[in-house]
Design a protein that fits this description.
about 230 residues; alpha/beta; seven-stranded parallel sheet; 6 helices; about 40% helix; globular; binds NADPH dihydro-nicotinamide-adenine-dinucleotide phosphate
Protein backbone atom coordinates (compact mmCIF):
# COMPACT_ATOMS: atom_id res chain seq x y z
CA UNK A 1 0.00 0.00 0.00
CA UNK A 2 1.38 3.38 -1.06
CA UNK A 3 0.20 5.60 1.76
CA UNK A 4 0.50 3.26 4.67
CA UNK A 5 0.24 5.25 7.89
CA UNK A 6 1.10 4.32 11.46
CA UNK A 7 -1.73 4.60 13.98
CA UNK A 8 -1.39 4.28 17.74
CA UNK A 9 -4.62 3.37 19.52
CA UNK A 10 -5.18 3.39 23.28
CA UNK A 11 -7.58 0.90 24.88
CA UNK A 12 -7.43 -1.39 21.85
CA UNK A 13 -8.27 -4.69 23.56
CA UNK A 14 -12.05 -4.38 23.34
CA UNK A 15 -14.92 -2.24 22.07
CA UNK A 16 -14.29 0.63 19.71
CA UNK A 17 -10.50 0.54 20.15
CA UNK A 18 -10.33 -3.10 19.11
CA UNK A 19 -12.47 -2.32 16.07
CA UNK A 20 -10.14 0.53 15.05
CA UNK A 21 -7.24 -1.93 15.26
CA UNK A 22 -9.18 -4.48 13.19
CA UNK A 23 -10.23 -2.13 10.38
CA UNK A 24 -6.93 -0.27 10.13
CA UNK A 25 -4.84 -3.45 10.05
CA UNK A 26 -7.23 -5.08 7.56
CA UNK A 27 -6.76 -2.23 5.11
CA UNK A 28 -2.98 -2.41 5.41
CA UNK A 29 -2.11 0.40 7.79
CA UNK A 30 0.46 -0.14 10.53
CA UNK A 31 -1.13 -0.34 13.96
CA UNK A 32 0.45 0.01 17.38
CA UNK A 33 -2.38 -1.24 19.55
CA UNK A 34 -2.06 -0.60 23.26
CA UNK A 35 -3.78 -2.37 26.13
CA UNK A 36 -3.42 -2.47 29.89
CA UNK A 37 -2.99 -6.25 29.86
CA UNK A 38 -1.80 -7.48 26.45
CA UNK A 39 -1.71 -11.10 27.66
CA UNK A 40 -5.46 -11.01 28.26
CA UNK A 41 -6.15 -9.27 24.93
CA UNK A 42 -7.01 -12.45 23.04
CA UNK A 43 -8.95 -10.85 20.16
CA UNK A 44 -6.25 -8.25 19.64
CA UNK A 45 -3.64 -10.99 19.61
CA UNK A 46 -5.26 -12.47 16.50
CA UNK A 47 -4.74 -9.29 14.46
CA UNK A 48 -1.74 -8.24 12.40
CA UNK A 49 -0.80 -5.44 14.80
CA UNK A 50 1.99 -4.62 17.19
CA UNK A 51 0.75 -4.77 20.76
CA UNK A 52 2.24 -2.61 23.52
CA UNK A 53 1.33 -2.25 27.19
CA UNK A 54 -0.25 1.04 28.27
CA UNK A 55 -2.30 2.22 31.20
CA UNK A 56 -3.03 5.84 30.30
CA UNK A 57 -3.57 6.84 33.94
CA UNK A 58 -0.13 5.64 35.04
CA UNK A 59 2.79 7.98 34.40
CA UNK A 60 5.36 5.18 34.58
CA UNK A 61 3.42 3.08 32.06
CA UNK A 62 3.21 6.04 29.68
CA UNK A 63 6.93 6.76 30.07
CA UNK A 64 7.76 3.12 29.42
CA UNK A 65 5.73 3.15 26.17
CA UNK A 66 7.51 6.32 25.07
CA UNK A 67 10.86 4.60 25.67
CA UNK A 68 9.74 1.57 23.67
CA UNK A 69 8.76 3.84 20.75
CA UNK A 70 11.70 6.20 20.94
CA UNK A 71 12.94 7.16 17.48
CA UNK A 72 9.82 5.83 15.73
CA UNK A 73 7.15 7.76 13.90
CA UNK A 74 3.43 7.85 14.59
CA UNK A 75 1.17 9.45 12.00
CA UNK A 76 -2.16 9.33 13.81
CA UNK A 77 -2.70 9.02 17.57
CA UNK A 78 -6.18 7.87 18.61
CA UNK A 79 -7.07 8.58 22.23
CA UNK A 80 -9.77 5.98 22.72
CA UNK A 81 -9.26 4.50 26.21
CA UNK A 82 -11.83 5.73 28.71
CA UNK A 83 -14.05 4.77 31.61
CA UNK A 84 -17.56 5.95 32.35
CA UNK A 85 -20.93 5.07 33.71
CA UNK A 86 -24.19 6.87 34.44
CA UNK A 87 -23.52 7.19 38.19
CA UNK A 88 -25.68 8.99 40.74
CA UNK A 89 -26.86 12.58 40.27
CA UNK A 90 -25.17 15.75 41.46
CA UNK A 91 -26.65 15.37 44.96
CA UNK A 92 -24.88 12.06 45.59
CA UNK A 93 -21.93 11.81 43.19
CA UNK A 94 -18.67 11.27 45.05
CA UNK A 95 -15.88 13.68 44.11
CA UNK A 96 -13.48 10.70 44.03
CA UNK A 97 -15.53 9.21 41.19
CA UNK A 98 -15.16 12.46 39.27
CA UNK A 99 -11.43 12.43 39.93
CA UNK A 100 -11.12 8.86 38.66
CA UNK A 101 -12.88 9.59 35.34
CA UNK A 102 -10.85 12.76 35.01
CA UNK A 103 -7.59 10.93 35.57
CA UNK A 104 -8.25 8.40 32.81
CA UNK A 105 -10.33 10.36 30.29
CA UNK A 106 -8.70 13.79 30.42
CA UNK A 107 -5.27 13.48 32.02
CA UNK A 108 -4.61 10.18 30.21
CA UNK A 109 -4.72 11.79 26.76
CA UNK A 110 -2.61 14.71 28.04
CA UNK A 111 0.10 12.38 29.37
CA UNK A 112 0.10 10.17 26.28
CA UNK A 113 0.20 13.15 23.91
CA UNK A 114 3.12 14.72 25.78
CA UNK A 115 5.09 11.48 25.91
CA UNK A 116 4.54 10.68 22.23
CA UNK A 117 5.07 14.17 20.81
CA UNK A 118 8.52 13.29 19.44
CA UNK A 119 7.01 10.34 17.52
CA UNK A 120 4.12 12.51 16.27
CA UNK A 121 6.49 15.28 15.20
CA UNK A 122 8.37 12.71 13.13
CA UNK A 123 5.07 11.55 11.59
CA UNK A 124 3.70 12.55 8.22
CA UNK A 125 0.19 13.37 9.34
CA UNK A 126 0.69 14.90 12.80
CA UNK A 127 -2.88 14.02 13.66
CA UNK A 128 -4.35 13.59 17.13
CA UNK A 129 -7.89 12.23 17.40
CA UNK A 130 -9.69 12.27 20.73
CA UNK A 131 -12.66 9.92 20.94
CA UNK A 132 -14.98 12.05 22.99
CA UNK A 133 -18.72 11.87 23.54
CA UNK A 134 -21.76 13.98 22.85
CA UNK A 135 -22.03 13.92 26.66
CA UNK A 136 -18.85 16.04 26.75
CA UNK A 137 -20.56 18.91 24.96
CA UNK A 138 -21.21 21.70 27.47
CA UNK A 139 -23.83 23.41 25.33
CA UNK A 140 -25.50 20.06 24.72
CA UNK A 141 -25.97 19.27 28.40
CA UNK A 142 -29.65 19.73 29.04
CA UNK A 143 -30.28 16.28 30.43
CA UNK A 144 -27.84 15.93 33.32
CA UNK A 145 -26.69 12.49 34.46
CA UNK A 146 -23.28 10.94 33.70
CA UNK A 147 -21.77 13.76 35.77
CA UNK A 148 -18.21 12.45 36.26
CA UNK A 149 -18.00 11.29 32.65
CA UNK A 150 -19.37 14.56 31.27
CA UNK A 151 -16.88 16.61 33.28
CA UNK A 152 -13.98 14.45 32.12
CA UNK A 153 -15.01 14.54 28.45
CA UNK A 154 -15.60 18.32 28.56
CA UNK A 155 -12.04 18.61 29.89
CA UNK A 156 -10.83 16.32 27.10
CA UNK A 157 -12.57 18.58 24.59
CA UNK A 158 -10.82 21.60 26.04
CA UNK A 159 -7.52 19.71 25.85
CA UNK A 160 -8.17 19.19 22.12
CA UNK A 161 -8.57 22.93 21.67
CA UNK A 162 -5.37 23.65 23.59
CA UNK A 163 -3.39 21.04 21.66
CA UNK A 164 -4.74 22.40 18.38
CA UNK A 165 -3.74 25.94 19.33
CA UNK A 166 -0.32 25.11 20.75
CA UNK A 167 0.63 22.77 17.90
CA UNK A 168 -0.87 24.75 15.02
CA UNK A 169 2.48 26.30 14.07
CA UNK A 170 3.74 22.74 13.51
CA UNK A 171 0.73 21.97 11.27
CA UNK A 172 -0.80 19.42 13.62
CA UNK A 173 -4.44 18.41 13.21
CA UNK A 174 -6.13 17.84 16.58
CA UNK A 175 -9.82 16.99 16.69
CA UNK A 176 -12.53 15.55 18.91
CA UNK A 177 -14.97 13.03 17.45
CA UNK A 178 -17.92 11.27 19.03
CA UNK A 179 -18.58 7.69 17.94
CA UNK A 180 -22.37 7.72 18.40
CA UNK A 181 -24.07 5.32 20.78
CA UNK A 182 -22.30 2.03 20.24
CA UNK A 183 -22.84 -1.57 21.46
CA UNK A 184 -19.79 -2.13 23.65
CA UNK A 185 -19.30 -2.83 27.34
CA UNK A 186 -19.67 0.90 27.94
CA UNK A 187 -22.52 1.55 25.50
CA UNK A 188 -24.52 -1.54 26.46
CA UNK A 189 -26.47 -4.00 24.34
CA UNK A 190 -29.33 -1.56 23.62
CA UNK A 191 -27.20 0.84 21.60
CA UNK A 192 -28.21 1.28 17.95
CA UNK A 193 -24.74 1.13 16.37
CA UNK A 194 -22.27 -1.73 16.04
CA UNK A 195 -18.62 -0.92 16.67
CA UNK A 196 -18.03 -1.91 13.04
CA UNK A 197 -20.43 0.77 11.69
CA UNK A 198 -19.23 3.44 14.12
CA UNK A 199 -15.54 2.95 13.35
CA UNK A 200 -16.14 2.69 9.59
CA UNK A 201 -17.83 6.10 9.59
CA UNK A 202 -15.26 7.69 11.94
CA UNK A 203 -12.44 6.48 9.69
CA UNK A 204 -14.08 8.20 6.72
CA UNK A 205 -13.87 11.46 8.69
CA UNK A 206 -10.35 10.83 10.01
CA UNK A 207 -9.02 9.91 6.56
CA UNK A 208 -10.08 13.30 5.17
CA UNK A 209 -8.71 15.47 7.97
CA UNK A 210 -6.47 18.40 7.09
CA UNK A 211 -4.81 21.00 9.32
CA UNK A 212 -7.70 23.40 8.60
CA UNK A 213 -10.00 20.94 10.45
CA UNK A 214 -7.92 21.25 13.60
CA UNK A 215 -9.74 22.40 16.73
CA UNK A 216 -13.09 20.99 15.57
CA UNK A 217 -15.56 18.60 17.21
CA UNK A 218 -17.22 16.19 14.77
CA UNK A 219 -19.87 13.53 15.05
CA UNK A 220 -19.12 10.21 13.37
CA UNK A 221 -20.68 11.44 10.12
CA UNK A 222 -18.37 14.45 9.98
CA UNK A 223 -21.00 16.98 11.08
CA UNK A 224 -19.73 19.64 13.46
CA UNK A 225 -20.91 19.31 17.09
CA UNK A 226 -21.30 22.45 19.25
CA UNK A 227 -18.74 22.48 22.07
P1 LIG B 1 -15.29 -0.01 26.47
O1 LIG B 1 -15.68 0.14 27.90
O2 LIG B 1 -15.87 -1.11 25.67
O3 LIG B 1 -13.69 -0.10 26.34
C1 LIG B 1 -12.90 0.82 27.04
C2 LIG B 1 -11.45 0.59 26.68
O4 LIG B 1 -10.66 1.54 27.41
C3 LIG B 1 -10.95 -0.79 27.10
O5 LIG B 1 -10.00 -1.24 26.17
C4 LIG B 1 -10.28 -0.51 28.44
O6 LIG B 1 -9.26 -1.42 28.79
C5 LIG B 1 -9.66 0.85 28.13
N1 LIG B 1 -9.25 1.54 29.34
C6 LIG B 1 -9.97 1.90 30.41
N2 LIG B 1 -9.18 2.48 31.34
C7 LIG B 1 -7.93 2.48 30.83
C8 LIG B 1 -6.67 2.93 31.29
N3 LIG B 1 -6.51 3.51 32.48
N4 LIG B 1 -5.58 2.77 30.49
C9 LIG B 1 -5.69 2.18 29.28
N5 LIG B 1 -6.85 1.71 28.80
C10 LIG B 1 -7.96 1.87 29.56
O7 LIG B 1 -15.63 1.40 25.82
P2 LIG B 1 -15.97 1.79 24.29
O8 LIG B 1 -15.20 0.97 23.35
O9 LIG B 1 -17.44 1.89 24.18
O10 LIG B 1 -15.43 3.29 24.29
C11 LIG B 1 -14.34 3.73 23.50
C12 LIG B 1 -14.35 5.25 23.49
O11 LIG B 1 -15.57 5.73 22.93
C13 LIG B 1 -14.26 5.88 24.88
O12 LIG B 1 -13.46 7.04 24.80
C14 LIG B 1 -15.69 6.24 25.19
O13 LIG B 1 -15.78 7.28 26.13
C15 LIG B 1 -16.18 6.65 23.82
N6 LIG B 1 -17.63 6.62 23.66
C16 LIG B 1 -18.31 5.44 23.63
C17 LIG B 1 -19.67 5.43 23.43
C18 LIG B 1 -20.48 4.18 23.34
O14 LIG B 1 -21.70 4.27 23.12
N7 LIG B 1 -19.89 3.00 23.48
C19 LIG B 1 -20.44 6.70 23.27
C20 LIG B 1 -19.61 7.88 23.30
C21 LIG B 1 -18.26 7.82 23.48
P3 LIG B 1 -9.51 -2.61 29.89
O15 LIG B 1 -10.14 -3.75 29.13
O16 LIG B 1 -8.14 -2.90 30.39
O17 LIG B 1 -10.44 -2.06 30.93
Amino acid sequence: MMNRSTYLITGANRGIGLEFARQLSARGDRVIATARSPKKAKELGKLDVRVETLDVSDGESVASLARALSGERIDVLIHNAAIGSAGPGIDRIHPDAVEQDFRVNALGPLRVTQALLPCLRAGRRKTIVAITSGLGSISGNNGGGWTAYRISKAALNQLVRSMAADLSAEKFTCIAISPGWVRTDMGGSGAPLSAEESVRSMLRVIDRLRPSDSSRFFDRGGKEVPW
